[in-house]
């Protein structure tokens, strides 16, 4: 495959791994009763990584011409990404009660697994 595209895919993959790791870390800290309070770990680093994940994804959409609302897998993936983002908001910012936050956190992890599954099915040539 074209080297710059391969680099972009690797970068996207790295951002996905970073996003998941931070999500798990912040959740575990929250359940341990010592949530991440400093702005760098709570907002700046996660926001930068998630923005890069989105931008690298959008760049690949353009390069590979795998447009959402045209390609089924991309439509499903984008929908799941939106749900992942919303559940993340509930888990760390909006949820009023610990139970709701925890449910949203587990839900987001499930949705993340769903995103990986969709990518895998797509890459194995189904759609
Ligand atoms: C939580 C968010 C996301 C996760 C976990 C994720 C994960 C992945 C993974 C694991 C791959 C396969 C990389 C490889 O091994 O080649 C991939 C590819 C891709 N992703 Fe994402 N992604 C996310 C968000 C996005 C977004 C927001 C977009 C677009 C707006 C996007 C567009 C793409 C495209 C176009 C590919 C290339 C598929 C191909 O090679 O045919 N992704 N993503």
Task: Walk me through the structure.
The chain is mostly helical and 127 residues long. The chain has one domain. The chain contains four helices and no strands. The protein has helices at residues 3-31, 39-64, 72-94, 98-123. The chain is globular, with a radius of gyration of 16 Å. The two termini are 19 Å apart. The mean pLDDT is 96. The site of protoporphyrin IX containing FE has 20 residues, from helix 1, helix 2, helix 3 and helix 4.
Helix share, percent: over 70%
Bound molecules: protoporphyrin IX containing FE
The first-to-last residue Cα distance is 19 Å
For the CA atoms, what is the radius of gyration?
Answer: 16 Å
Rounded mean pLDDT is: 96
The shape is: globular
Q: Sheet bearing the most strands, described?
A: none
- Which structural class matches the secondary elements? mainly alpha
| Number of structurally distinct domains | 1
SS element count, helices: 4
Total beta strand runs: 0
Topology as a string of helices (H) and strands (E) = HHHH
Portion of residues in beta strands equals under 5%
Uncertain runs: none
Primary descriptors:
globular, mainly alpha
What topology emerges from the helices and strands here?
Elements: H1 3-31, H2 39-64, H3 72-94, H4 98-123
Helix pairs in contact: 1-2, 1-4, 3-4
The structure holds protoporphyrin IX containing FE.
Write a brief structural summary.
This protein is 82% helix and 0% strand. The protein has helices spanning 3-31, 39-64, 72-94, 98-123. The chain starts with a helix and ends with a helix.
